[in-house]
TrEMBL record:
Record SUPFAM superfamilies: P-loop containing nucleoside triphosphate hydrolases (SSF52540)
The protein's role, per its UniProt record: Plays a key role in chromosome recombination and chromosome structure development during meiosis. Required at early steps in meiotic recombination that leads to non-crossovers pathways. Also needed for efficient completion of homologous synapsis by influencing crossover distribution along the chromosomes affecting both crossovers and non-crossovers pathways.
Keyword tRNA-binding listed: no
This protein's name: Pachytene checkpoint protein 2 homolog
Amino acid sequence: MSVLKLLNRHNIVFGDYKWTEFDDPFLNNNVQSVSIVDTELKLKDRQPIDLSKSSLSLHIFHLNEGGPTSENLEEENEDITAAHHWVLPAAEFHGLWESLIYDTEVKSNLLDYVTTTLLFSDKNVDSNLISWNRVVLLHGPPGTGKTSLCKALAQKLTIRLSYRYRYGQLIEINSHSLFSKWFSESGKLVTKMFQKIQELVDDRDALVFVLIDEVESLTAARSAFKAGTEPSDAIRVVNAVLTQIDQIKRYPNVVILTTSNITEKIDMAFVDRADIKQYIGPPSTAAIFRIYLSCLEELMKCQIIYPRQQLLTLRELEMIGFIENNVSKLSLVLKEISRKSAGLGGRVLRKLPFLAHALYIQSPSVTMTTFLQALSLAVDKQFEEKKNLADCV
């Protein structure tokens, strides 16, 4: 009731919004934050949202502060860290979903896909008649946020489906560790790893996500074996992975999330098992602008950039015809920095504000104008470093 009263008092919002301070004693004592999220999944342009006329889904959750644990396999009297394990929702992933910015409807498509797979499973739809495998493959160049998106998706769905599952489990498999130095044992290690996952899947109160990062290392193409460039034991590893996926997909509470930087090296039999094969590329200029905007908002909130300055969105700049005036000047500078940042991945882009401060500012607070100058220099330096590295190869 206290949350509904809060929303009734602030029934008009512009996009996502978050409250962390409350007048209501109950909220103040028991709630860390109240957030309105995912408005951009439905609205293309920034516009007022009347909460009193909207259909709201309320999700109440408690973050697990425990952090990851290691899943070890014993081989020849040696412990191998085969995976890391989180109980969801995890404090470590809080806010990760909102920080990931894409041009296309990647996030909403993934949410809708997994929600549909779990619905079909719950309704006992015959998978012999309508086929789905609960396998997602995200592929694209390094640094574009594929692994982060998988973790954020697992967290998001655990919260959204809390009415159905009491908690989530995320198992991130260390693909490289499953290759034994006695290579013939690697297939057995894969089987052992999935046997441990099976124990988690048996708990029907848990929604289990299996994340296989750089899946190409586990599913090295059998065509390479035929060409004589891969040992026959590699085929056993591929077969073990495919067999385990086929076995585990029978369970309604498991989703397999995979990523790859080198799609052409993945075995086609695995690719065929993926229901969604989503390319995640470098962000466009528009997405870069939104990423930088979120970084600058955070630095203003923490008063590293001071005083606070109004920054316009690209949509607002477009509405005024990109005309420069006192209100739009800083936003147009940011637009130009975003333009020349094209080609950089999201991981690098979110690091650049830190590097800008460390390399060119080094003071407790700075004006927006000075910070944007430093950010522009940091972008130039990033491309210079990439060129120097390329010249050395």
